[in-house]
Amino acid sequence: MSMCMDQWISQIEQWFHQQPVEQIYVAVAVLALTVVLFVLFSLLKTSKSNTIVLAGLNGSGKTILFYQLRDGSPHQGTVTSMEPNDGTFVLHSELGKKGKIKPVHLVDVPGHSRLKPKLDEFLPNAAGLIFVVDALDFLPNCRPAAEYLYDILTKSSVVKRRIPVLILCNKTDKVTAHSKEFIRKQLEKEIDKLRTSRNAISTADISDEFMLGVPGEPFTLEQCRNKVTVAEASGLTGEVSQVEQFIREHVKP
Questions:
Q1: What is the separation of C-alpha 126 from the centre of its chain, rounded to a whole number of angstroms?
Q2: How far apart are CA 144 and CA 146, in angstroms?
Q3: How many whole angstroms separate alpha carbon 48 and alpha carbon 128?
Q4: For the chain, what is the largest distance between any 2 Cα atoms, rounded to a whole number of angstroms?
Q5: Does the pTM exceed 0.90?
Q6: In 104-175, where does DSSP find H-type helix?
Q7: 59: nearest Cα among 200, 171, 157
């Protein structure tokens, strides 16, 4: 066995001596480049984003959802935050699970109109976005909610990266809450009106925006370039299973 190995090594050495020096340099360079590319690919693969962004109008219940996902508690009452809640943690419902579970980086962006630009800080690294809608007081807030959602769906950072969006109808535990089907249709109608009015503006006045929908057809969420789905939840009662499902679809355990 040792003799065969020595013979094999001797043949390799002989082959190397027979090759032009330039050819050996090229072979070594190709090998080095292959190793570098492999390492870079591995790093990119393992560093896939684990950031999920919570957005929506003030009072929609984003911060209570944040606490439910992190602590399994709503931290009773209405919570208004003027600074983003930003945390990396294993979802509370998964704490008892065995094996390695990937933590989620969850960012709750305040809904105050003055603070909406903060959203742009987190979108470039987002694996998904949850747009929270108050299903109880939806009608008075339908127009501003649609405007905010329109702004999100036309952002180049969302469209180019095909960031998945979940429209989350919160507070559905209340009897008078609107259904997700109703909310979806109303948002589509409002966005269709916005699309018509904003498309009339010269493209020179629109920065960093993509056009929504199909020209000449009523707008539907299916027309978006990125995947948009609608779900229900109740941050106060802890019914957040559909939220967790969305998170785990885009931040693998």
A1: 4
A2: 5
A3: 12
A4: 87
A5: no
A6: 119-122, 138-153, 156-159
A7: 171
202 near 140, Cβ under 8 Å? no
243 token code pair: 């939220």
- Where along the chain do its domains lie? 2-45, 48-250
User: Can you tell me the distance from the alpha carbon of 83 to that of 155, in angstroms, rounded to the nearest whole number?
Assistant: 22
Check if the beta carbon of residue 76 is closer than 8 Å to that of residue 22: no
Alpha-carbon distances, residue 152 vs 16, 121, 183 (angstroms): 60, 13, 17
CA 128, CA 221: separation in Å to the nearest integer? Answer: 16
The C-alpha atoms of residue 186 and residue 145 are separated, in whole angstroms, by 10
Find where tokens 């559909």 sit: 242
Tell me the residue type at 89.
F
234, β-bridge pairs: 239
Give the span between the Cα atoms of 129 and 41, in whole angstroms: 26
148-173 confidence digits (pLDDT tens): 999 999 999 999 999 999 999 999 99
Residue found under tokens 């010269």: 202
Residue 252: pLDDT band with limits 50, 70, 90: confident
First CA to last CA distance, the chain:
47
- Greater confidence (114 vs 143) lies with 143
The single-letter code of the amino acid at 137 is: D
Specify whether the CB–CB gap between 240 and 173 falls below 8 A: no
CA distance 228 to 164: 6
The first and second tokens of residue 183, run together, are: 């909310």
User: Could you give the angle at which helices 138-153 and 180-199 cross, rounded to 10 degrees?
Assistant: 50
Q: Can you name the CATH fold of 48-250?
A: Rossmann fold (3.40.50)
